[in-house]
Amino acid sequence: MDYISTRGKVEKCGFIDAFLMGLANDGGLVIPSEIPNISEQKLKEWQELSYQDLMLEIFSYYTNDEIPYEDLKKLVYDSYSTFRDEAVTPLKQINDSLYVLELFQGPTFAFKDVALQFMGNLYSYVATKRNEIINILGATSGDTGAAAIQGVRGKEGIRICILHPHQKVSKVQELQMTTVQDENVLNLSVKGNFDDCQQSIKELFADVDFKHKYHLRAINSINFVRILSQTVYYFYAYFQIAKAKPVGKVNFSVPTGNFGNIFSGYLAKQMGLPIGKLILATNENNILERFVKEGMYKPGEFYSTYSPSMDIQIASNFERYLYYLNDQNPDKVSELMNRFRAEGQLEIGPELLGKVALDFEAQGVKGADCLEIIDKYYKQSGYLFDPHTACGVKAYETCSGEQETCVVFATAHPAKFNEAIALIDIEQPFPTEIQQLFDKPQVQTVIENDKQVLVSELERFFG
C-alpha cells in the first residue's frame, strides 16, 4: 500500500512516512493509493473479534508490515487499556431502530480518544525506533486538544502545542487542556474561532521549510492514521448488531464539523462494510449540510452553539471526499481548492450532486431542537445525550426510515457540556475525573489571531 496526496504532487510513500507527514507537502491530504475491498467471508470472520483484534485486522491492509505484528499488537492493546469499558466503544440500544455507540469511554470522555490514544503511542514508538524528534502541532474546537495532550503528555522526545479558540470551548474542555502541567505541553488560547486556528496550522504545515526545521507532526484529522483508526468502530458497531439480529445495511448518523469522523465511515463503506446512509449531522454552522443538499461549499456566518466542537465552517477533511467525488483526479482537486481559496466558495453541478446523494444525507440542527431532543429522550429512556449526540439523534429522526436500523455516534460524555444540559433543568453527576478538574490551576497563553505571534511562540517552545 502506497500513500499519495489528493493534489498529486508528492512522491508515493509508506505508512510511517505518511503518518509523519500529516498534511501532504503539496498542501493536499494524504490518502492510500487504493482502498482495499474486504470480502463478505472476511466480514463474517471479523464479527467475533474483540475491538483490539479487529483494529489489527483492518490496519494489516494499510501498514505494509512496516511495524512488526507483535509491536503493533502491543501499541493497540496499550492504547485501549485506559478505557473504562472493555468493549472500548460499547453499543447501547435505545429503541427498535436506534442504537447509540458510546465513543466517550476514553481518558478525556470524547470520541477523539479512540484515535489519539493510539496515535500518541505510535508517535512515541516511531520517535524511539527512528530516533526522531516529534513536535506535534494541532488545533482543536475542544475535544481533539485534550485527547491529544492526554495521549502524549510526559512522553520523552515528544512536545505538543495545541491551539484552541479563546473562550469558545466548554469549561470542561478548557480545563482538560489547561490543567496539564507537563513541560512538554503548550496551550495557546487564540482570540478567534476554530477556523482561524486551523487555518494557521495548515499554513504552517504547508510551509515545508518551517515544517521540517521544527519537525512538525499533525494530530488533527488531516493525519490519515486518525481517519483509519476511526473506521474501526464503524465495523465494530455493525458487527454487534449483526450478531444480535438479522440485518442488511445499517445507517450511521454522525455529528461532524471537520468531516473527519464521517469520512472514516465513507472509507469503511468503500472497503465493503454494508452501510446504508451516512447521515451528516451538524448545527447552525451548516456549511456541510448546504453542500450535501445544494452542492454549494461556502462558509457562512459563524455561530457559537450548544455543540461547540462542531462550530466549524471550513472542514479540513472535505478535500479527501472531493478527491473521490471527482474520480480520484488530483488536478481537478487542485483546481477546486485553488478556486475556493481565491473566491471563498466552490460549487458542483447536478451530476456530482447526484453522486453526493448516493453517499450522504445531511441535517443541520438548531439549538432549541438540540435541547428538545436531550429532554425528550432523557424522559423517555433515562439516557442522557450530550448536545453533539443530540444533533445526531435529531438527524436520525429526520433522515432514517422507520424500518431502518441506525447507529448514532455518542461523541462525548454529557458532563463535558453541562452548560447546555443545565438549561433544561437536568442535574447530572460528574465523573470523578471531571469533577477534580475544577480544583486544579490552569496554564495557558492567550494570543492574538496573528501568524507572526504564533510563530514566535512556536519558535520559543520547539526551538
UniProtKB/TrEMBL annotation:
Signal peptide: none annotated. Keywords: Amino-acid biosynthesis, Lyase, Pyridoxal phosphate, Threonine biosynthesis. Residues 3-80 form the Threonine synthase N-terminal domain. Its cofactor is pyridoxal 5'-phosphate. CDD domains: Thr-synth_2. It catalyses: O-phospho-L-homoserine + H2O = L-threonine + phosphate. Its EC number is 4.2.3.1. Pathway: Amino-acid biosynthesis; L-threonine biosynthesis; L-threonine from L-aspartate: step 5/5. GO terms for molecular function: threonine synthase activity. InterPro entries: Ser/Thr_deHydtase_PyrdxlP-BS, Thr_synth_N, Thr_synth_N_sf, Thr_synthase-like, Threonine_Synthase, TrpB-like_PALP, TrpB-like_PALP_sf. Residues 89-330 form the Tryptophan synthase beta chain-like PALP domain. SUPFAM superfamilies: Tryptophan synthase beta subunit-like PLP-dependent enzymes (SSF53686). Catalyzes the gamma-elimination of phosphate from L-phosphohomoserine and the beta-addition of water to produce L-threonine. Belongs to the threonine synthase family. PANTHER family: THREONINE SYNTHASE FAMILY MEMBER, THREONINE SYNTHASE-LIKE 2. This is Threonine synthase. It comes from Paenibacillus konkukensis.
